[in-house]
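TOKENISED FOLD:
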Amino acid sequence: MEPVTLDTDRLLLRPMEAGDVDAVLAACQDPDVQRWTRVPSPYGRGHAEDFVLKIGPAGWREDTMYNFGVFTRDGGALVGSMGLVGFTPSRHAERVAELGYWTAPEQRRRGYTAEAVAAVVRWAFTEVGIDRVEWFAEVGNEPSRAVALRAGFTMEGTLRSWFVNHGTRRDAWVGSLLPSDLGLESRLPYLPAQPQQSPQ
């Protein structure tokens, strides 16, 4: 897919560029980013350069990850990174995508990340043809969970030993957002399960 740019009232979401490396490097020094996400730890300049200059562009080119740098429209400060990640052929066929994000420490508690989520998921539903956006976070990552809830995600449960973070298997929360949650139609019809009747 050709890279795209999205905007909201306060934010500009665009593919990252070489000039963003320093801001990404600074943001990823934050202990919470390193604790709760799978960015390398310690995080060096080479990691930031790889992410901005290689991994991000390759994701768009190969349809494996559509990542945005999130920036303030007033001043252009880096708010964070957000994208649809983890595409595989089977997930493409099923129209399912995973949403991932991190937020720079000085930009938290301003509603920026939830605002960016709203833009990305609407784009995913209306332009990419996604029918289900999934969110995962390690159990205990309350700020990420709060953003997902604010954006309208439904929490679906806890997955045991779901992923590896820093060499240890960890439990994860899982949530989802559907087009119908935003008043949009899905590409394929959706038949929700009916509540089961208790045996008489």
About this structure: Residues 6-182 form a domain with the Aminopeptidase fold (CATH 3.40.630.30).
